[in-house]
Amino acid sequence: MADQSIQEALRSLPSVEEILQNLSLSKKNTLLADLPHALKADIIRKEIDTRRSAILANQHADTDASSITEAVIDQLELQANPSLRRVVNATGIIVHTNLGRSVLADEALESVIEVAKGYSTLEYDTQAMERGSRHIHYEELICALTGAEAAIAVNNNAAAVMMVLHEFAQDKQAIISRGELIEIGGSFRIPDIMDFSHAHMVEVGTTNKTHLSDYENAITNDTAMLLKVHTSNYRLVGFTESVDIKDLRKLANAVNKQRNSATAQMPHAAQASYLDQTPFSAQAPFLAQEPLSTHAPYTTHGQPSQPAPEPLLVYEDLGSGLFIRPKWLTADQEPTVSESLCQGCDLLSFSGDKLLGGPQAGIIVGKKELIDRLKKNPLARALRLDKMTIAALEATLRLYLDPNKAMKAIPTLKMLCAMPEEIQETANKLKTALDQSDASKIADFKVTQDISRSGGGSLPMLDIPTYCVEAIFKDKGNAQECMEYLVQKRRIPVIGRITHQKLLFDARTLIDENDLNEIVSGMSEYALQGTSKNMLHNTNENARQNTSEHAAWV
Asked: How far is CA 534 from CA 70, 71, 401, 543, in A?
């Protein structure tokens, strides 16, 4: 672009006042009227500056006032709506991390509202009429449902792992198989969590095979923990071998007998006798155990000595937290919390917002004396749950007291366990509504069989049969353009998935009639407003960078 052309283009840029006048005449002025004048003016200046910079860089930039006005309206609409808002999940990913993971049950929502709108018994004991503990609202329920002796909940499972390592393996060794050095979400990496907790990580085995002897040979007097991490977001296939919790339990018991025998003849020796007992029993979760006292020093000839060595613990990070297994899911694919505890874990942690179907939380269950130590850990206060999360968690756990009710009332379980014929019925209903709407002007719709995913770092690669409604565009529009419109132009975004240039709406993750109505109205609006690239173009590319990610599985 010649210097003269650049100057002409710069002079053609409208003023801030001109764009403000256009906004006042816009059909969307009612929506934008409540926004401050200063905000409008600032966004206009930034849009004009963006185009001015493009011109000076010898790049094409539309200087038409109407184009700038449309771009400004797009930005103002983002400001007018909350950034965190409801979406329609038509991707088929049940526990979608990007979309907020698990959907709460109605009972949980009601409990949150009740607690949030007034004062509550968060830390008040109504029977004793004195200060109480926030743990009581969920601990007994968790123990009754899992067979654990005690429980504590923190704000997520990564925090749970960190707190366990900090309390029991700080400046000591924690042994883990190389095949279990997982990464979840890009920021949760077992080696990093170990380092942050000041635990000394000892890797054993190989990526695909780890034997019991690998653990046994790595144990020293400085070893505090055998750490088992459930591979909840990937699978190793082929020539593989791993060690079960029950075998790690036997190994830990043998080591603890040796440690105890070394001090058994010393007066007042601190012995971890509880570790030599049988594993957890989900049938008898409240059996009395011998006290664990590992801190009392012993004496020899009247001279103080070091405390007896702490017991070697077996700790499993289960990840997803399944309480009820669907009939079609095997124990090899995903163990329940109770099953893992019965294998002999001292401690076990899992998420509250994945397969459990509750709010975001990290739940730790296990031996009472170990849980009591965690409750006193300084991190327990820093990572504790707030009243609304506790309210949602308690309500969700209460639903599990009746498994049949839980399967119907907890959306995650309901979607996971829904039979294909139920999903097909929903898909047929959506197709009929689309056929009878304005969306039929630009697309034909058909019901197709496909695959859903559990998502959220759970049940990796498990194919869940589903039915989708496929949009087959005619001479106008296409899957990508339509997806952009449904995501970017609507107050309640509709997020489907694009497969082989086809736009699919997976019926398995549609919650209710409202979701169906949003899809129909969104598709109809897209059909009526046109499908040209020019209409959908947004000059602020930063607002459109993530569009393609909405079509991805995770």
From this structure: 11, 12, 56, 16
Can you read off the two tokens belonging to residue 306? 């070091």
C-alpha–C-alpha distance, residues 373 and 167, integer Å = 8
Q: Where are the domains of the chain?
A: 3-80, 88-99+415-551, 106-117+130-294+305-409
pLDDT at 501: 84
- As a whole number of angstroms, the distance between CA 221 and CA 259 comes to 9
Query: Which residue, among 414, 359, 358, 491, has the nearest Cα to 87 in the 3D structure?
Result: 491
Q: Over the stretch 434-450, which tens digit does the pLDDT of each residue have?
A: 999 999 999 999 999 99
Structure token digits, residue 392:
């949602």
CA gap 263, 497 in Å, rounded:
63
Fold of 88-99+415-551: Aspartate Aminotransferase, domain 1 (3.90.1150)
**Are 419 and 58 contacting, i.e. CB atoms less than 8 angstroms apart?**
no
Backbone torsions φ then ψ of 216, nearest 5 degrees: -60, -45
**DSSP letter (8 states) at residue 102:** S
The bridge status of strand 223-229 relative to strand 173-177 is parallel
Q: How far apart are CA 486 and CA 489, in angstroms?
A: 6
Beta-strand (E) ranges in 254-346? 297-300, 303-307, 313-319
Under 8 Å CB-to-CB from 177, ≥6 apart: which residues? 203, 204, 205, 210, 214, 228, 229, 242, 243
Residue 544 amino acid letter: R
User: DSSP per residue over 26-81, as a string?
Assistant: STTHHHHTTS-HHHHHHHHHHHHHHHHHHHHTT------HHHHHHHHHHHHHHHHS
- Contact in structure between 233 and 458 (CB atoms under 8 Å): yes
Asked if the 106-117+130-294+305-409 domain carries CATH number 3.30.70.890, the reply is no
Query: E strand or H helix at 152, and its extent?
Result: strand 150-154
Q: What is the pLDDT of residues 492-537, one digit of tens each?
A: 999 999 998 899 999 999 999 999 999 999 999 999 986 444 333 3
Tell me, rounded to whole angstroms, the distance of Cα 160 from its chain centroid: 14
Three-state DSSP state, 296: coil
Neighbours of 184 (CB within 10 A): 17
Same CATH fold assignment for domains 88-99+415-551 and 106-117+130-294+305-409: no
SS3 labels along 114-139: HHHCCCCCCCEECCCCEECCHHHHCH
